[in-house]
Amino acid sequence: SASADEEANLVVNEEIEMVVRTDAPAHVENLSTIYSGWVFRSDETQALQMDDFDNPGMIFVDQAAERWAEVEGKNGKSCASCHGDVEEGMKGVRAVYPKWVESAGEVRTLEMQINDCRTNAMDAEPWKYTSGSMTNMVALISVQSRGMPVNVAIDGPAEMMWEQGKELYYTRTGQLELSCANCHEDNYGNLIRADHLSQGQINGFPTYRLKNAKLNSVHARFKGCVRDTRAETFSPGSEDFVALELYVASRGNGLSVEGPSVRN
Amino acid sequence: MKRAILIAASLMAGVGLASAEVAPLNVVYDDAGAVAVSLSGAPGDAEMGRKVFSTKSEGNCVSCHAVTELVEDVPFHGEVGPVLDGVADRWNEAEIRGIVANAKKTYEGTIMPAFYKTTGYIRPGDAYTGKAAKTDPLPPLLTAQQIEDVVAYLMTLKEE
After folding, report:
1. Of A173, A175, A227, Cβ closest to residue B138
2. Mean pLDDT of A153-158
């Protein structure tokens, strides 16, 4: 059917039990229950995420797994040189990003951290923020946390960025004067034309979209949603979007890491 | 001399036509958000309005509102706003004009966009390009005549 089965449960590979609905964290003021975007998709789209053989996003994860061991840059190193097996080295990492990185004195997304490793640790070219190479690598790293609860820290030194992201979330931008909350908080579960609105959670990122047949990053999705308010968007990787990602990720604390998920 | 008078007369006529249209900044809303006079100075065309209502690049009202009468011609009606069947029984023409021109004057803080407004935006963009707006004020989402056409269409939605 075209509409979603909002009662369905997600178990991947008959093994990884995903939390797709749970109590909202206390810092999410206007929701009592949080839902994964998977809940709002059609039966057919939902099914594609239930087995890695059916999930088209896994092809891109495989590509990144090869890249993981590829030596690049002037220092003659690969990701594996420093981090070993990705299964070991990256377990649990996705679940806590974006996070405050003390040594850098800033909140970093996974993309920022990966490019820091590429430019500084490897002396290789950085990847473009929303490029295929980057998004595929983020997906490979996400897979190592699948089924673990999103657990992004919002206090301490991250708090200012979190507040900045929260403000952006509730700001009505563009000529349509719509905020993220107008669609994803006030109207989740409703149809907007043919689209079934979800809560706009990011626990499933990167997402494989049937629409463009590739993995899509968080900031690319944000950019699309802001553009659709007839606004001037922010750039992927900008401080505004990093803050927004921290805030939106924190709204999903308690949902399972699902990436790569499948969406329409 | 005769020619000069003719030109003056046609200029006057031009001015007369232009001033019949109410510019977005000059729209007069009453306390309840209603707008009494036609924005274009001309009557609306309900058939055109039906198209504006359901066309994505025009009003795209159907993305948020369902109308039973439209279902056969236009698939996928949204459910963010109320179903507009019988809307003309609930509101008069001036009230509907006010809601379409700037719904925020009728419903404070509503999610419904203002279709005849040109200033006061945060990060205004150039349509759906994601780039910065090229002009300030912006062109309104709908022209005065398109608003009148949509109003005329909504006035046909009666149940009683």
Report:
1. A175
2. 97
